[in-house]
Request: fold
Amino acid sequence: MKTEETNDKAAMVAEQGAHVAPAKAPSKKGASRKKGAPKAKKGAKRAKAAKAPRAKKGATDARSNKKAEVIAMMKRTKGVTLAEIVEATGWQKHTVRGFVSILGSKGGQKVDSSKNAAGERSYRIAK
Reply:
């Protein structure tokens, strides 16, 4: 009897087989949105764009062209001070200085810069 019992035990061990992970089933879920991303209808962007009228290129009645204003002020015989440009455009001083620098280097304009007796910087486009 002992031989039969050992054969049964050996058969049971052979049936178990090696420990292998089962094959992974494919995901049923598709790609998902990021967390907190708003849901939008496909035509929502187009509908908003169609409602808002666009300004035509070159139309200056609704907006003013600040660059053209600054260039016109700089073409005056006395030129224009840094403070006047800041007041007219609402730009900060470093923005005005950057604009004048680019106007001289890439804009093809000859810009003269000088300080008056009060120490104010003035800019003028040479003709």
In short: The first helix runs from residue 2 to 16. Helices lie at 2-16, 44-51, 66-74, 82-89, 93-105. Strands lie at 80-81, 111-115, 121-125. Residues 34 and 40 are 13 Å apart (CA to CA).
